[in-house]
Design goal:
The complex is a heterodimer of chains A (194) and B (541). Chain A has 194 residues and is mainly alpha-helical. In chain A, 71% of the residues lie in helices and 0% in strands. Classes of the chains: A mainly alpha (194), B alpha+beta (541). Bound molecules: zinc ion (ZN).
Chain lengths: 194, 541
Amino acid sequence: MSEDNERELIDRAQAGEAVAFERLAEQHAARLWRCALALGKDGHWAEDLAQETLVEAWRSLARFDSRCKFSTWLYGILRHRFLKGRPNQKAARHSSPDALGQVPCTAHTPSRSAEASEDAGRIRRAVASLPEAHRLVVELRFFAGATLDEIAAALGCPLGTVKSRLHHALEKLRQMNLEVNLFTSTGESRDSKP
Amino acid sequence: MNDLRHNCELWAEPISLLAAGCLSTDEERDVRRHFETCPDCRERFGQLTQLCGALAEAQLPVNVAENAIVERVMSAVASEESRRPLDRPQAEMIQPSPLTRSRNRWRWIMRSPVSRIAAVAIVVLAVGVAMFFQGGGGTAFAFTDFVAPILKAKTTKCKMIIETKGPPVQTLTSEVMTLDGARVRQVTELPDKSKVVMIQDWSQGKSLTLLPASKTATVLTSSSNRKDKTPENGGFFVFFRLFQHVAEDKPGIEHESLGEKEIDGRKVVGFHIISQPHDLIMWGDPKTGLPVRVEITSGIEGSVKATLSDFVFNVDMDESLFSLEPPAGYTVRKGKTDDSPKEEKDLIEMFREYSKLSDGAFPDSLDFLTTSTSFGKKAGLRMSIQKMWEDLAPGKRKPNEEQMRKLEKLMLKLAEGKLNKEQTQEIAEQIKEYIETQTQNTAEVGETQETEGFRQAQFNEVFRRVQRGLNFANKLPPSADAHYVGKGVSFGAADTPIFWYRPKDSQNYRVIYADLSVRDSDTPPNVSKGQPVSAPSRPKE
Ligand SMILES: [Zn+2]
């Protein structure tokens, strides 16, 4: 969706047009869910969080004034809701490192080869082994597709912090890669391989 | 070699971010430029790109039940709407939202430090440049034709833009008027749109500086017995001096013709004059013999650049514009400029003040402009930070060194001027939050708020000491065999020399060490690659 398009939808939604808001919700629901998943790890809980976030967004829509991107604003709300519900979620958040793999998969992408998903599993485990702060930025960036601004909003920390965490997390993963050769089997499929 | 490695550390984070697809095109271009010269970083980038590709592919192979989510959202929306009164609840409108607060913070932070930094820059440039050029060398040739009108005109008007290299980058625009080649009125606009008016009289060695926004006036009188009495805060007079040297046609100047080009549809001819460490480019109209644009670059790697343009000569000007009487209603401060001879102890004081602000490090060089400008910026930043700290945490303990450093880093990012509005706001938030979290649980210790005037005076005093020290070193004659080796050295080691010179009529060297002790020695220290300090192209007065 183009920015103008989104701007127009926001204007209409702010004027009270629920249909316009529905379009916005469609655009952002999936990414919010992925973000929630990174934060909380439980699929159903993540759905609830994404849903609450959007409902809250509708309620506070008048306050959105385009000083940041709409998505960044949503991530900020998500964080707020997340913190509110946090105590109950402690158990879920400290579940096993492989929790991401146990998320209920409503629809497996069938084209994935077994080998590729094995690699993906290994990579996810490597990510899960990172310290919490590093794991979150990596998951939000690569698994939830969030931008740096959105990550900052979701985690409630400064942009500079997100940058340095992402950098350090990648550096850690890169060094793991060098040691255990984590990616050799998938390397061929990527054009950037020298 | 060290520089290169240091450089790569700076690039490490941007490279990671580039691999993660998080850099703007501009930022990406800078990183790629670094790759051209750095195979190590290129290789790291290759690995990271591969890693990031793998990460993106490792995204969970699930389809979010987004339709279900949206459906539930919309049913909640619908049921709320049915219960909602026509107008949104009052409380929701009144509650300050996080966004409104952000905006205020942003405004607040833009207002306070940036304008302060600019004011500091004026001091740096106005004072620093003048003192540097005093005792400067000469030059000349055909371009004297273009200098003469500036020197001889009854009145001159022009625009002056001064840019200093970052961080922080600064650009200040002044409107300059001169009368009888001895009086100048210079009006400079600060980034916050407030103005500084500086009026000087060369023949009397007097200057008047006005800050209309705060209605303060500063009158400075030179105690010098020198004939020309250049006010020490020389401002535009600096260029008069420089042009005079050029017009006097002294030897030792490199020059070349730059041929013809067009400026604003006018055919002009140009000259490039190098009189180390100054670089002048002058474009003039061959038909009228009048200057059109003058660019003066000074300091190491051109740290300061002044561009003069829009010249108008011999128009009528009201003499009252040049009055040295402070206007009614202004608070007046008076002072004498400092013309006493500079001594070795001034240089030691300079080293002390500089290293205090730089984590112990001594300056990279003793180049007057570069070093005094960088010191001025650092000291100015600190002044701004102290002010913010006191505004946000009145009565609380002042920032310690570590807190100061952290805030300096953030402020520098702001001051670099490369950020967009959102990023600026982001940093502003960080600064405010940092101060708030650092002070929220500390007790009030009853520290008193310092007045702006006090702070500025304190700054001026330190800055004056630094300039005196630099002046001392720069005015040493070649026979003093002065050398500076403090680059990369930090305060402390009693056996690491940083500077030496031979005082006039002395056989012995004076050697200053990194602990700022001084010892006499028959021979210069055995250190390779010392920077000679006195500039041979600048003959002594
Ligand atoms: Zn490099």
